[in-house]
Backbone:
């Protein structure tokens, strides 16, 4: 174990300020359509998970959508004694393609990711225009997760949904949850799927296993307001 960095406390302080002053949405894959980027959003129907292109009627089953979007990279560990592949170390890493695979005669195009950032400070918008490169996810040391900003603009809606941004916790009005949402009596869903979450913070495990979460795309019986919490998950309101 190395020594604690000198700016360790500053790192935590900045992290807490990010939680107080900013909210982040999930990123969703998008496709260029009629000169605009259109996100593909998940939703459950009749017990199955589908993806729907924003502002369009294009709908595809989850398995087919994965085929258009995802790929895998093989890898293996090297045995230093033989300078060859170590036994039982062959594995695959699932990745997002940089280009869509064509389907049903459609022309393949670049894959982009769309997300929303809620800021309390208006000056943040101009500051963020200087940020052109992002690294997303936990596999950046393998060269994965690199995103280049191609567009940035102020928005009045959250994807296709109404939003109340000027609050401590921004609110989204929707019948589909687009982030993991804690299961409770306020979000009695028609259909969806549950899973438990966990994570790490400064090397310390974070357990969220006390309550399962509805996965993105899970659908409610009616539209409700949802708060975007400081950890990125949603909370359904009355």
Residues:
């Amino acid at each position: 174990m190395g020594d604690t960095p000198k700016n360790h406390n500053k790192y935590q302080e900045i992290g807490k300020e990010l939680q107080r002053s900013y909210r982040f949405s999930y990123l969703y894959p998008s496709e260029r359509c009629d000169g605009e980027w259109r996100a593909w959003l998940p939703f459950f129907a009749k017990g199955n998970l589908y993806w729907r292109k924003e502002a369009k009627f294009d709908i595809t089953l989850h398995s087919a959508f994965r085929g258009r979007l995802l790929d895998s990279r093989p890898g293996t560990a090297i045995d230093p004694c033989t300078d060859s592949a170590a036994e039982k170390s062959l594995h695959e890493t699932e990745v997002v393609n940089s280009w869509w695979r064509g389907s049903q005669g459609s022309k393949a195009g670049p894959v982009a990711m769309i997300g929303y950032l809620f800021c309390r400070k208006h000056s943040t918008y101009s500051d963020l225009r200087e940020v052109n490169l992002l690294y997303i996810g936990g596999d950046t040391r393998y060269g994965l997760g690199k995103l280049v900003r191609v567009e940035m603009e102020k928005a009045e809606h959250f994807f296709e949904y109404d939003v109340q941004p000027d609050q401590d916790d921004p609110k989204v009005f929707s019948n589909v949850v687009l982030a993991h949402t804690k299961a409770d009596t306020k979000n009695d869903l028609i259909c969806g799927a549950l899973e438990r979450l966990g994570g790490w913070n400064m090397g310390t495990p974070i357990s969220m296993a006390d309550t399962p979460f509805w996965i993105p795309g899970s659908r409610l019986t009616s539209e409700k307001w949802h708060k975007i919490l400081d950890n990125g998950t949603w909370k359904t309101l009355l």
Summary: Residues 109 and 163 are 30 Å apart (CA to CA). The chain has a mean pLDDT of 86.
